[in-house]
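Researcher: We plan to redesign the surface later, but first we want a full-length starting point. Tokens attached.
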């Protein structure tokens, strides 16, 4: 069988600009080595390459294939998904998609990621008081309905998180994971029990953001917002934010992945397991998400007329 069809992507180690070199540690395994490490026969690996474009080898000038440790991990991940009942083509597609996500630039902003990938989500200019009301509603629904969801809260600074600590301690007891992002007043002070803290640096872009992200099958919801600049002297609860809200599971999953990546970058505990849990695409839902989001957006426009302050977040 000819496995070097032009339809198959091949990395050439002698290609201009290639970072791989002949005999490099990055791609030093032969196809026999890869077969031995993974238990997949060389003929099967060649068939996968020809039919599915995976794994993609480097090529020596002689034409021989060379693979890296990342290729070993990728093949093993495909095998794991196959054992879980996933079709071969779907398993390979999922692994390739995961590798592509891993190669994307480091996350810097939940708001920016959601806006960049989901421009269809409506944007509203809201006061902080409105964001508080929406946040409380999401948190209440989460506590009542969500099953072991992954929960993320962006509070900007510790002074805004402090009133919500007890509330988030209760939420963390029913969550699969719960993370609270804020800039600490004293970085050396002990952190409170409850939600896992994600301590923000002074120059972190997330310090200007507000968010509640609840990733679960039965209650996916993400509220994200970015504080507008130039509001010195404005009373706290009248500060304005550009805000977006969605229950689209795909958009919520992206927001949750971004939060988890930011938590990992900050060195927060337990993020590896959370990122693994969020790696797959979410299951589709039967609801008309566009109609529901449009209805909620109309509600948001009215709720900003004014409401009473409430203790808590």
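Model: Full-length starting sequence:
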């Amino acid at each position: 069988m000819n496995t070097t069809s032009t339809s198959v992507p091949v990395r050439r180690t002698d290609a201009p600009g290639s970072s791989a070199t002949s005999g490099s540690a990055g791609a030093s395994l032969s196809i026999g080595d890869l077969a031995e490490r993974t238990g997949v026969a060389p003929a099967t690996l060649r068939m996968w390459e020809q039919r599915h474009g995976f794994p993609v080898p480097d090529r020596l000038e002689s034409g021989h294939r060379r693979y890296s440790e990342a290729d070993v991990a990728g093949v093993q991940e495909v095998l794991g998904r196959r054992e879980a009942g996933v079709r071969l083509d779907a398993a390979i597609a999922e692994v390739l998609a995961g590798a592509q996500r891993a190669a994307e630039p480091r996350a810097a902003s939940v708001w920016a990621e959601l806006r960049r990938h989901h421009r269809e989500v409506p944007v509203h200019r809201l006061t902080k008081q409105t964001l508080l009301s929406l946040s409380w509603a999401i948190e209440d629904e989460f506590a009542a309905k969500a099953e072991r969801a992954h929960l993320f809260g962006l509070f900007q600074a510790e002074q805004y998180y402090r009133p919500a600590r007890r509330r988030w301690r209760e939420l963390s007891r029913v969550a699969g994971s719960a993370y609270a992002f804020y800039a600490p007043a004293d970085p050396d002070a002990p952190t409170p029990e409850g939600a896992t803290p994600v301590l923000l640096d002074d120059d972190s872009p997330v310090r200007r953001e507000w968010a509640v992200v609840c990733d679960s099958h039965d209650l996916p919801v993400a509220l994200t917002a970015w504080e507008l600049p130039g509001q010195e002297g404005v009373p706290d609860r009248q500060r304005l934010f550009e805000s977006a809200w969605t229950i689209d599971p795909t958009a919520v999953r992206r927001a949750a992945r971004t939060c988890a990546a930011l938590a990992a970058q900050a060195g927060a505990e337990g993020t590896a397991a959370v990122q693994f849990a969020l790696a797959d695409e979410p299951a589709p839902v039967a609801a008309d998400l566009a109609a529901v989001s449009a209805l909620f957006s109309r509600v948001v426009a009215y709720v900003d007329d004014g409401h009473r302050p409430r203790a808590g977040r």
